[in-house]
Amino acid sequence: MFKDKNRLYLTYISFSMEIDTPIFQGQRKQLCEHLFSKGYAKEQVLEAMMRVPRHIFLESGFHQHAYQDKAFPIAAGQTISHPSTVAWQSELLEIEKGLKVLEIGTGCGYQAAVLVELGVKLFTIERQKELVDFSKKMLKILGLRAEQKFGDGFKGMPVFAPFDRIIVTCGAPFVPKALLTQLSPGGLMIIPVGDKTQKMIRIRKKHDNTFVQEVLGDAAFVPMLRNKE
User: Fold this and answer.
1) Which residue out of 81, 90, 135, 184 is catalytically annotated?
2) What is the pTM of this model?
3) CA dihedral sign, ordered 215, 83, 137, 92
């Protein structure tokens, strides 16, 4: 899997230009209706998810499963998250158009695409170079713009800080202090914290630069790792 990266990218691009058929759109609608019925997210988030064809982020052999609530393997030993997880985290961010958002863990770019469709100004960082390259191509295909960086998510993107929202899409062993520093007063961060399994944590930064933390439920993400140096 993923042995010939350049050929893989070209295959994804050729598929994506013609494959968002009415069948896939119908499956996407059914998925979003299911997520709404289960309370994962409200209309704003699900309308954004309706505009993002999840199947083009997967290998073609998995396209028929793309609109089931499943995670799937992608390059570099990573996964694309369950749609319910993407919906839940996006909802927890309390997004408003125009907010400045930092994403830790771009992965294949699916969550990033949903965030951009929600109208935010997105900054996203990924430690796996092949995923950085892939996600850039996918966002370009979809006509979506984000500031993307290859680097260590524990360090965030201080050059562009502060951020109104920070979303971490991998399981952090602890809350990185650098990310707290880069959060705007009045802003919030969503981060799964733990080892093999995690708790989803929402952290609000008050205007006096103190923090309020909520534990929102169980989560299971691939681990957040430091960049290889």
Assistant:
1) 81
2) 0.90
3) negative
